[in-house]
Amino acid sequence: MNKEIILSELQFKAVRSSGAGGQNVNKVSSKVIVTFDLQNSNGLNEEEKTWLQEKLKTKLTQELVLQLSCDEDRSQKRNKDLVTNRLFELLEQQLQKPKPRKATKIPKEINEKRLQEKKKSAEIKESRKKPDF
Fold this sequence. Notes:
Blueprint lengths: L2 H7 L1 E5 L7 H5 L3 E7 L8 H10 L9 E6 L5 H20 L12 H21 L5
Antiparallel strand pairs: 1-2, 2-3
Protein backbone atom coordinates (compact mmCIF):
# COMPACT_ATOMS: atom_id res chain seq x y z
CA MET A 1 0.00 0.00 0.00
CA ASN A 2 1.49 3.30 -1.13
CA LYS A 3 -0.04 6.15 0.90
CA GLU A 4 1.25 8.97 -1.34
CA ILE A 5 -0.36 7.49 -4.47
CA ILE A 6 -3.60 6.73 -2.64
CA LEU A 7 -3.69 10.28 -1.22
CA SER A 8 -3.43 11.70 -4.73
CA GLU A 9 -6.30 9.45 -5.91
CA LEU A 10 -8.75 10.54 -3.20
CA GLN A 11 -11.65 12.78 -4.18
CA PHE A 12 -13.00 15.19 -1.59
CA LYS A 13 -16.42 16.82 -1.60
CA ALA A 14 -17.66 19.42 0.89
CA VAL A 15 -21.38 19.52 1.74
CA ARG A 16 -23.53 21.14 4.37
CA SER A 17 -23.71 19.34 7.68
CA SER A 18 -27.03 18.24 9.07
CA GLY A 19 -28.35 18.75 12.57
CA ALA A 20 -28.12 21.57 15.06
CA GLY A 21 -25.74 24.47 14.62
CA GLY A 22 -27.80 27.51 13.72
CA GLN A 23 -26.69 29.83 10.94
CA ASN A 24 -23.28 28.19 10.63
CA VAL A 25 -24.87 24.95 9.39
CA ASN A 26 -26.97 26.80 6.83
CA LYS A 27 -24.08 28.85 5.46
CA VAL A 28 -20.93 26.73 5.67
CA SER A 29 -20.14 23.44 3.92
CA SER A 30 -18.04 21.85 6.62
CA LYS A 31 -18.95 18.17 6.17
CA VAL A 32 -16.37 16.36 4.04
CA ILE A 33 -17.03 13.22 2.00
CA VAL A 34 -14.05 11.31 0.63
CA THR A 35 -14.39 8.76 -2.17
CA PHE A 36 -11.75 6.19 -3.01
CA ASP A 37 -12.00 4.06 -6.16
CA LEU A 38 -10.65 0.74 -4.97
CA GLN A 39 -10.74 -1.00 -8.36
CA ASN A 40 -8.76 1.64 -10.29
CA SER A 41 -6.22 2.51 -7.59
CA ASN A 42 -2.52 2.43 -8.46
CA GLY A 43 -1.51 2.57 -4.80
CA LEU A 44 -2.62 -1.03 -4.15
CA ASN A 45 -1.48 -4.24 -5.80
CA GLU A 46 -3.98 -6.80 -7.13
CA GLU A 47 -3.74 -9.03 -4.05
CA GLU A 48 -4.50 -6.09 -1.75
CA LYS A 49 -7.43 -5.02 -3.94
CA THR A 50 -9.07 -8.45 -3.84
CA TRP A 51 -8.44 -8.75 -0.09
CA LEU A 52 -10.00 -5.32 0.56
CA GLN A 53 -12.97 -6.09 -1.71
CA GLU A 54 -13.70 -9.15 0.40
CA LYS A 55 -13.18 -7.43 3.77
CA LEU A 56 -14.96 -4.15 2.94
CA LYS A 57 -17.82 -5.50 0.81
CA THR A 58 -20.45 -4.01 3.14
CA LYS A 59 -18.87 -0.54 2.90
CA LEU A 60 -18.31 -0.47 -0.88
CA THR A 61 -20.73 0.72 -3.55
CA GLN A 62 -21.57 -1.43 -6.57
CA GLU A 63 -18.78 0.34 -8.51
CA LEU A 64 -16.31 -0.70 -5.75
CA VAL A 65 -15.96 2.85 -4.44
CA LEU A 66 -15.35 3.42 -0.75
CA GLN A 67 -17.06 6.49 0.73
CA LEU A 68 -16.40 7.96 4.17
CA SER A 69 -17.71 11.19 5.65
CA CYS A 70 -16.90 13.39 8.63
CA ASP A 71 -18.86 16.29 10.12
CA GLU A 72 -17.48 16.26 13.66
CA ASP A 73 -15.76 19.63 13.53
CA ARG A 74 -16.88 23.08 12.37
CA SER A 75 -13.70 23.39 10.31
CA GLN A 76 -13.71 21.88 6.82
CA LYS A 77 -9.93 21.41 6.89
CA ARG A 78 -10.09 19.57 10.24
CA ASN A 79 -12.87 17.31 8.91
CA LYS A 80 -10.79 16.61 5.80
CA ASP A 81 -7.80 15.58 7.94
CA LEU A 82 -10.00 13.41 10.18
CA VAL A 83 -11.66 11.55 7.31
CA THR A 84 -8.31 11.00 5.55
CA ASN A 85 -6.78 9.55 8.71
CA ARG A 86 -9.86 7.37 9.21
CA LEU A 87 -9.58 6.02 5.65
CA PHE A 88 -5.91 5.08 6.06
CA GLU A 89 -6.58 3.47 9.45
CA LEU A 90 -9.40 1.43 7.92
CA LEU A 91 -7.24 0.28 4.99
CA GLU A 92 -4.31 -0.65 7.23
CA GLN A 93 -6.55 -2.48 9.67
CA GLN A 94 -8.23 -4.51 6.93
CA LEU A 95 -4.94 -5.37 5.19
CA GLN A 96 -3.53 -7.08 8.30
CA LYS A 97 -3.68 -10.82 7.85
CA PRO A 98 -4.85 -12.73 10.94
CA LYS A 99 -2.39 -15.11 12.57
CA PRO A 100 -3.18 -18.78 11.98
CA ARG A 101 -4.58 -20.56 15.01
CA LYS A 102 -2.39 -23.24 16.55
CA ALA A 103 -4.34 -26.25 17.76
CA THR A 104 -3.47 -27.21 21.31
CA LYS A 105 -3.11 -30.81 22.38
CA ILE A 106 -5.27 -32.04 25.25
CA PRO A 107 -3.12 -33.41 28.09
CA LYS A 108 -3.30 -37.15 28.82
CA GLU A 109 -4.33 -36.54 32.44
CA ILE A 110 -7.41 -34.60 31.44
CA ASN A 111 -8.55 -37.30 29.01
CA GLU A 112 -8.12 -39.96 31.72
CA LYS A 113 -9.99 -37.84 34.24
CA ARG A 114 -12.88 -37.39 31.78
CA LEU A 115 -13.08 -41.14 31.19
CA GLN A 116 -13.06 -41.81 34.95
CA GLU A 117 -15.93 -39.33 35.43
CA LYS A 118 -17.87 -41.08 32.66
CA LYS A 119 -17.35 -44.48 34.30
CA LYS A 120 -18.39 -43.11 37.67
CA SER A 121 -21.61 -41.57 36.36
CA ALA A 122 -22.40 -44.76 34.41
CA GLU A 123 -22.03 -46.81 37.61
CA ILE A 124 -24.32 -44.44 39.50
CA LYS A 125 -26.97 -44.71 36.80
CA GLU A 126 -26.58 -48.48 36.67
CA SER A 127 -27.17 -48.72 40.44
CA ARG A 128 -30.49 -46.86 40.09
CA LYS A 129 -32.02 -49.67 38.02
CA LYS A 130 -34.26 -52.28 39.60
CA PRO A 131 -32.53 -55.63 40.04
CA ASP A 132 -33.29 -58.21 37.37
CA PHE A 133 -34.14 -61.63 38.92
